[in-house]
C-alpha cells in the first residue's frame, strides 16, 4: 500500500516548523521517517502536511558541560553508536544506540523520533528513564522541559502537546562510581525486544527500569530494585502473561548481575 497524498514542507528553522504546525491541524513532524514512513504507507496515519525537521541544525547539535550532555532531537542512533557524540560515562549511550534495530534504521532513525513515537519496546525510553534524562520541548506557547519518566505516558503516548517539537534530550553525566548494565531479549538481532532492563547503581542509590511491557517503562528505585521487588511490581501490571513476566525477570536478573559484578 502507498501513503495517501500529503503536502511536504522543509522549514528553515524550528520557529518556522512550529508556525507550520500551528497553521495546519492535520500536520505531523517528520524526522527519520523510520516509524512514520511505515505508518503512512499502511495508512495508519494520513496527515495533510508533513513538516520535515531532521535537516535543521538547531535539532542536530550536541553540547556537553560538567553536568550533562545535550543531544539534538534529530541526532541519529548511528551518530551516537559511532561515538560522534560525547558520552556521559562508560560508553552507555553508544551501547544503547548500537543495539537499536540494524544499521539502515540507525542511519536515519533519530533519538527524538524514537522518544516521540513512544513504542513501548523502543530502547531510548527505557534507557533514558533510567538515566533520568530531560526532554527539551518547544511549542507555540514557549519552551518547557519534562523528565523522561513524565514524558513517556504509555504505549505510543507522550506528553507532547499539539504543535510541540522536541528540541533535544539532556542526559546527566554519570558519577565516577556509577555502574550500569543494559540487557534485552530479542528473537533475532535487529528485532524489537520482548524484554529489557536497565540497571544503574551510583552514589548508594539503585535504579532499574523494565521496558517492552506494552506500556510505559516500569521504574524501580532503591529497595525495590531486586527480583522480589520486580516480581511484585510486574504482578500488579495488567496485560502481562506468566511467560512475559518470567522473561522480564530473567533479563532483569542478568542486568543486576552485570551491574553488580
Ligand atoms: C524494522 C524496524 C526495527 C526497529 N527496531 C527498533 C529497536 O530495536 N529499538 C528501537 O528503539 N527502535 C527501533 N525502531 C525504531 C527506530 O529506531 C526509530 O527511532 C523510530 O522509527 C523513530 O525515529 P524517526 O527519527 O525515524 O522518527 P519518525 O518516524 O520520523 O517519527 C516518529 C514519530 O515521532 C514524531 N517526531 C519525530 N521527531 C519529532 C520531534 N523532534 N518532535 C516532535 N515529534 C517528533 C513524528 O511526528 C512521528 O509521530 C525500529 C524501526 C524499524 C522500522
Structure, explained:
The mean pLDDT is 96. Strand 12 and strand 13 (205-211) form a beta hairpin. This protein has 10 helices and 14 strands. The chain is 31% helix and 27% strand. By secondary structure, it is of the alpha+beta class. It has helices at residues 14-23, 36-41, 77-81, 92-98, 103-108, 111-117, 123-130, 148-151, 227-235, 242-260; strands at 7-9, 27-30, 49-52, 62-64, 68-72, 134-139, 142-147, 152-154, 157-158, 165-172, 179-185, 195-202, 205-211, 218-221. It has a 5-stranded antiparallel β-sheet with strand order 4-5-10-6-7. The structure holds flavin-adenine dinucleotide. Flavin-adenine dinucleotide is lined by residues 28-36, 53, 73, 77, 100-101, 105, 108-110, 112-114, 116-117, 122-124, 160, 165-166, 192.
Core attributes:
alpha+beta, 31% helix, globular, Enolase-like, domain 1, binds flavin-adenine dinucleotide, 261 residues, Uridine Diphospho-n-acetylenolpyruvylglucosamine Reductase, domain 2, 14 strands, Uridine Diphospho-n-acetylenolpyruvylglucosamine Reductase, domain 3
